[in-house]
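Anyone opening a protein record will find just a pair of labelled lines. A complete record is shown below as an example.
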Amino acid sequence: MASPGFEIGRPSEFGVELTRLLERCLKESRCVDTESLCIVAGEKVWAIRVDIHALNYEGNLLDAASVAAIAAITHFRRPDVTVSGEEVTVHSPEERDPVPLSVHHMPICCTFAFFTQGKHLLVDPSLVEEKVMDGKMVIGMNKHREICMLQITGEMLLLKEQVLRCSNIAVVKVTEISELILKALENDRVARTSGEKCGFAESVEPKKITSTKTDHQDVEMEEHDSDKMADTSHSSDDDIQIVRPEDSVEVKILDKGLAAIGEGGQNTWEIDEDVATEAMADAAAAATSSSCLQGKGDNQHEVIDLDSGSEEETTMTLSHDDLQTHRPTTTPAQAASQKSADRKGKKKKKK
């Protein structure tokens, strides 16, 4: 329901991580007095469970879930209980007013997203920002500056100063959110006392469609060296001479299947002129050697330089006439068969 990326059934890795972080933030921090949940020592206790239903996932679900969980725990009321000997009586809300839970403090999660190896910091990332971030740090803290949970994930390294800076930002955010929760709980209590509409279901107007909308904010970005290099590359591209088809250009035939059009423009590939000259000389030498190998006649196929000190292997190309002159008249097998035939002929003559 919250997002098409979530499947029904077995929880995903993200769901398991979210559940464990909430347990560390709420359960292991002992924000609720568990002794007050005891009814009969060693026999009966109250079991508290928090179910979170996400309506729309647009990023940073952990912070929203922690705020909703601690607000639900603080707002929850359990039935009053009377213990008489071994008899336990649970009173209905009509008989006795429900009893609130004993909450020591309100831990709230605050998520920080990091970009470019921790150089840029972002608080409360959205879904798009979570997909491109290098890593994140989650701090669970209450308004008393007590850290209840801390987790760092991602491929990045943070300095001590960065962690302290994030903790100082988290204190401000947690204090503001705690005051909003307490204010909302007080308004709900006043509404229930005066008999006005209260609760989420009663406060929603059925004939209206609510939507979230945020105004676009301009972000000032500093110009980096990479942007300057990109501008320089664009300026160098403007210097390239563009040859149009209608211009009269001379075509030079360099070799078979090789031609050159025009004289070219300014060198923009940052290649040393000496290297380019040597490459052109090597190409011309290769073209000359190939023309020498072809020769003028049919029997001239190779030119061998005996003065060169090269140790590479040479390949000789033989013509059809050379193969006929060097080919033996008879093979060893044919000579043996001829000898055996001559012997048989001599034996017949003797007989």
Q: What stands out?
A: Residues 13-203 form a domain with the Ribosomal Protein S5; domain 2 fold (CATH 3.30.230.70). The mean pLDDT is 77.
